[in-house]
Known about the structure:
Radius of gyration of chain A: 20 Å
Strand content of chain B: 25-35%
CATH topology of the largest domain in chain A: Rossmann fold
CATH class of the largest domain in chain A: Alpha Beta
Helix content of chain A: 10-25%
CATH architecture of the largest domain in chain B: 3-Layer(aba) Sandwich
Radius of gyration of chain B: 18 Å
Structural class of chain A: alpha/beta
Number of domains of chain B: 2
Low-confidence stretches of chain A: none
Oligomer: heterodimer
Structural class of chain B: alpha/beta
CATH topology of the largest domain in chain B: Rossmann fold
Mean pLDDT of chain A: 91
Order of helices and strands of chain A: EEEEEHEEEHEHEHEHEEEHEEHEEE
Number of helices of chain B: 2
Largest sheet of chain B: 5 strands, parallel
Order of helices and strands of chain B: EEEHEHEEEEEE
Strand order of the largest sheet of chain B: 3-2-1-4-5
Number of strands of chain B: 10
Shape of chain B: elongated
CATH architecture of the largest domain in chain A: 3-Layer(aba) Sandwich
Distance between the termini of chain A: 19 Å
Shape of chain A: globular
Largest sheet of chain A: 7 strands, antiparallel
Amino acid sequence: MITSQPLAVRVRLIEPLSPTLKRVSLEHADGGLLPTSPPGAHLALILPGEKRQYRNSYSITTGADQRSRYEIIVRRTADSRGGSAFIHDELRLGDVLTSALPNSQFPLQNRARKHLLIGGGIGITPLLSFLPQLRARRDWLELHQFSTRQEASVFEKLLDPFGGHDVHVNVGRQAVALADLLARQPLGTHVYSCGPKQLMDAVNDTALALGWPPVRINLESFGAFGGDAFSVTLSRSGREIPVGEHESMLEALENAGVQVPSLCRGGACGECLSTVLDGVPDHRDHFLTTEQKAEGKLVMPCVSRARTPYLTLAR
Amino acid sequence: MTIKSRPVYSTLKIDLSGRRHLLMIGTSGVSRDALAPGVETSAFDEQWTIASNSLAIPVPDETTTRHSFRAEAHLLIALRRRLKDERMGLRLYAIGTEPFLWNVRGLASEFGMTAEEVQLYATGSAARRVFCNHCRTITSGVTTNVFQCSGCGAHLFVRDHFSRHLNAFAGVQVDAEAPGELPDIEELYL
C-alpha cells in the first residue's frame, strides 16, 4: 500500500523558460530540508483553482542530493485541463501548496551496465533527475533529447550542467534513427523514455523487435488523457457520471464527489485501480499486465478510458 | 528438503524474442535431454564446444557457426571478448556441469545480462565446487557428503546452499563440537 502523507511546499521561484514552459522551485513550507526525492520521482500537487481543485503530478527535475528545493517544469498546453494553466497564470511566489511525498515509479536501474535516456519535449523532466546521480557515479550513459527547433536551446540549457559527448539534443524525430540507436547498444543496457506516446511506443516496439527483454525498457507516461466522451456507472449507487473529451475518468469521478485513492495519476503506481463490471476499458496505463488488460476486469481511471460508450465500475 | 538457492534447470528452448542465439557446450556432445522437444542444435546461430584437445583451433571466421576450443578456460576467454562487443538482443545458452554453467553465467552477469537472457541446463558430472566457510578455499570435484577441505583440512559437510556469486556450494565443518566424530561418508554427487 502506498501512503500519500501530505507535505506543504512553498513557491520560492517561478522562472519562464519559454513562452509555454515555466520552472517552479518549491521549498519546505516549514523551512528545513525536504524529504529525499528519488530519481524519476513525481510530486502530486493539489492546486487550488478558482472553480475547483486540480490534482496534477509533475516530475521532479532535481536530483536526490538536492533537499533544499524541488524543481518542476510545467508546460502550458492549449487543451490544459486546468492545473497547468493555474500554475502559469495564478500561482504566485510565496504560495503554499499541499502535495504527496515524492514517489518514483520510474527508478534508475542500478544494475544497468549502461543507461540510454530518450526524452521527447517536456518528457526530459524525469531524465533530468537521473543525471546528478549518473554523473556522480560516472556511469555509462547516452542521452538523446528530441525537440522542436524553437525549444532546442531551452533543453540545451537544462542539460548544460551535465553536458558531454554523450548528451545530445536533436531537432525533430528524424534526426536520429531509433532502430540504429537501439541496435548498437551494448549488452546490459537499460533504456528509459519519457515523452509523447508515439515516441515511447516507437522506443518500446523497436527495442522489442531488436530482442531487448521487456524488463530493460523503462517508460514514463505523463498521460494521454483525451479521447471520446463516455459515461461511468457506479455499481453501488447506480450513479452515472459523464467523462468529457478533455478530462480523465479519475477527474470526472473526483469532480462528482467520488473519493478515489490516487497518487501518480499517470498510470504507473496502481493506486487508483478499479474493478470493471461492464463495458470494455481502453487501457493506457503501464501498471496492468498484458493479460490483465486483455481480461478487461481492471482499469486505471487516471489514464484509461472506455472503448464502449459506458463503463460500470464496482464502486 | 529444497533450498531456494539451489538452482533449478529446465531444458533449453529457443527464446524467440532474442535476435542472436549463442550455445555454449561444456560436455562432449549435446545430450538430447538438454534440449526441449522440437529444438535442434541447428536452431542456434553458433555453437561453441570444448574439444579438450590441444589441436583445437577456433576459426576466426564470422560465418562459421561451430567453434571448438582447447579447454574451458580457452572458451571463457573468447566468450569474454565476444560479450564485450555484443549488442542488446543476444541470448546465451549453456549446457554442461554446474561449475561450467556458472562460469558462463558469471561472465554474462559481468556484462549486464540478466536471467531473461540466459538459459542453463546442467548435465554430466554432479561433482561440486565447495567453498569452505572457514578458510574460504574452494575445492573442486567433491562427490561426497563430507570431505576434507583442500585449504585448511577441516572436515566439511556439503550443503545444498549454492552461491551464484562464488559458483560454489557452502561447506561447513561437520565435527566442530566433537572433533573427529564424522557421519558416514556417502558418494552423493557423481
